[in-house]
Records
---
Amino acid sequence: MDNARGFADREAIVSEGTVYTYGELMAAANGVSRKLLAGKGSLREARIAFIVPPSFEYVSCQWGIWQAGGIAVPLCVDHPLPSLRYVLEDSQANALIVHPDYEELLRDTARELDVRFLPLEAFSSAPNFAVPESPAPALRAQILYTSGTTNLPKGVVTTHANIEQQIRTLVEAWEWSADDRILNILPLHHVHGIINVVSCALWSGARVEFLPRFSAKTVWEKMATGAITRFMAVPTIYFKLISFWEQQSPEERDRLSTGAQRLNLMISGSAALPVPILERWRSLTGHTLLERYGMTEIGMALSNSFRGERRAGHVGKPLPGVELRLVDGDEQPILEEHVPGEIQVRGPSVFREYWQKPAATAEAFTADGWFRTGDVAERNDGMFRILGRDSVDIIKSGGYKISALEIEAVLLRHPAVDRCAVVGLPDEEWGEIVAAAVVPTAPNPDFAAISDWLREQIPAYRLPRRWLAVDALPRNTIGKVTKKPLKELF
Ligand code: MLC
Ligand code: AMP
């Protein structure tokens, strides 16, 4: 926000066809801040949830909450009510800023939970006072919810200092400049969209254009017409862009490819980038995708080089300011190459805590402050290669992290389900797809009906895409479901 003052007249955001300058963004954020403060000096880390589609208004809310000393809790615009309610309850939200499209959905829930309900329109009339002091770096700034090895998502708390470091390292490594223009097609309740795309661009005086939803046609058009200089996405999106290109005429393919060549950077992350996608993208656009590795708790940690080598199947080297090591089963550092171990990360970009979960926070760190990522990697000629995760219960689909345990816990509430187990199956387009094996309470379960019911309970991207009715789940000698043999059943 401090940087923005130096860019006041530059274009900051393109949202629904309107261009907004940094000056307009600061004024809008200031309005949000004043309205939230209502005469008080600081919100003192009150949790301010907000449900606003990716847009100028989204950033105004985020900056306004920050300026007022609150903790921003972005809600996902696609989540069903139970998921939204969980975040409001778990974060102990004090207030909720609501875009008009979600007022009806959330009004009663906010009342029940005693959360102050603030329609977004109320902020447009807020007066434009002088910008208050920037919040102290040690204050908590944001809570992002992440699925994990427990059946309920955890709130990852980052401070202003954490976020600043997460941004600074990427701005330096990927050489962001004020002349850059980027398109955001990612959801804004995860770091990929919020930090890597939006915050890095706005830190640098660059321009962000929001697409409310991903559309392969529009992304290609933005690349072809020179509207953007860089692009970032998950591997599934590159898969979809390639499929779209393949459906075009030879002349159209040529136009799209020629335009895409002009970008200065294209990045893939949030899930493993299959080498065939990297190679196909290179043949279409001339760009070798820069693959990097990160996590909600740590921001980005490893990256291929902006100017130097980008090695297929590898995620590069530690970013500036990131301390990273591989450890063996006894948590001893691995110094040799080609030996797999868990990635552990330390440094100022690492999150502060899981919200109100001191035991989970303590468990996530070693005694000397290393964060245990649960990801397994090896080092090959100085570059890291991700080999997988230490938990079979974590699935990555379309770049989203999904907890198998969470889906199982919800499924068990359905009367047709006696027992169940959820796994991820490899998939070319989605990375993994969610699959559920069910021991039904009666023969011939109606999986379409169960799926419709589930859609009301959990976000659509977590829905099982493959179903299997079984008489019994495979178990080991101590009665625990064995997921490897289960995957083979599919
Ligand atoms: C959707 N569909 C799926 C699916 N998600 N099918 C299988 N598996 C999935 N995961 C189906 C829908 O049911 C629908 O089918 C059809 O696909 C279109 O749905 P959609 O929601 O309109 O899809 P689309 O908009 O194309 O979404 C795809 C996507 C989205 C790739 C744009 O998944 C996405 O935004 N992913 C990014 C997530 C992200 O930002 N992750 C970063 C986390 S941070 P039907 O039959 O109903 O038409 C992190 C740290 C780091 O990981 O390192 O960055
Ligand atoms: P999230 O918790 O949603 O932030 O997802 C973080 C997880 O995504 C990491 O722990 C990794 O498992 C995975 N991930 C991110 N980037 C990559 C990558 N380039 N290759 C493989 N896995 C990745």
Note: The mean pLDDT is 95.
---
Amino acid sequence: MKLKILVVAGDGIGPEVTNEAVAVLKETAALGGHEFTFAERRIGGVAIVQDGSPLPADTLAAALDSDAVLLGAVGGNEFNSLPPDKRPEAGLLQIRSALGGFANLRPAFAFKELAVNSPLRPEIIDGADILFVRELLGGLYFGQPRQWNRATGEAWNTMRYTKDEVTRVARVAFQLAQKRRNKLTSVDKANVLEVSQLWRAAVTEVAAEFPGVTLEHQYVDAMSMHIMNRPRDFDVVLTENLFGDILTDESGVITGSLGMLPSATIGGKVNLYEPVHGSAPDIAGKGLANPLGAILTAALILRHSAGLEAEAVAVEMSVRKVLEQGFRTPDLARGNYQGFTVLSTTQMGVKVRETVKTQLVNA
Ligand code: NAD
Ligand code: IPM
Ligand code: MN
């Protein structure tokens, strides 16, 4: 199996966590005799500083010429006063748009090994396994017009969707639900917003193509409560861009930490893989970052771009085993280190790779 992977590590903890993800991919390729090649390019703040643009042309060209793109994170406090189109985050939105993937899959499942570290009671989260499907190319992020008019003291953004944009992401979500527990929850704000009414109507129409899947609708405000109170009741959760951004960070509480969440964006020219978390300037450069979200993102590359399901499962199992053995990055121990061995980013990467090796050699 051959795979050409572009790594755009970005800012803050981005390079720290992608290093560990890449090392896992290299280990997996070496053990299975697969030919994975890696190239690196700049994106985000580091690209603004060195190239004068958050998405340099050669980064975009390399991304379009690869089989998969692995992105770390972008953003830094030094860029906070820039307008949105000049910021590191603009580079991320541009690469998403250019690669064309509209379905952002964000799995969030409770690791029983982490229940002891969760602020939620074990009996609430035990067995929770949600797959968020976040629409990634529409809504407020890309809608026009958008402006901050300083002279008049007004600013506006536009939440816009076409029926086709909703239909195509809904089909992906229903297909995924068919392979899981045949339940789909669509999240909107149809009691207030026209765009959500269109969303709900389009999703309901697609549901007719999937009679085996049960569809329910929830308002986003209530949903943000339900996923904390009864996360086990949800299977596939489909929602628009901004609601999905917010609900998936919230679901980090179910998994134990935002640093555990992976994502894969499919449906476009080249799949884009990113952990859900950001550049975490508060802990960057200190070896404190949890690399497991990035490593689980590497597992998604193995599954969705390399077609190596057994290897993907081996990586996911290895993450579980390492947690089972009591190894934690500081975000997971949440101040309670008793009974745990706290590891740095690179030490955690080494533990996972050792375990992957054992898993794959014994397979
Ligand atoms: P963040 O996700 O970077 O951090 C939120 C909190 O979670 C912080 O306390 C951080 O230390 C912690 N955290 C995040 N990832 C962690 C990890 N792997 N291990 C341990 N702890 C982790 O969100 P923020 O602080 O709101 O944003 C910081 C910057 O990142 C901003 O510029 C934002 O725009 C950007 N951002 C980028 C992406 C991306 O590139 N995909 C995603 C989200 C935010
Ligand atoms: C995410 C991030 C991005 C988003 C930002 C950095 C543009 O928060 O991937 O969740 O809002 O999509
Ligand atoms: Mn986010």
Note: The CA atoms of residues 128 and 233 lie 8 Å apart.
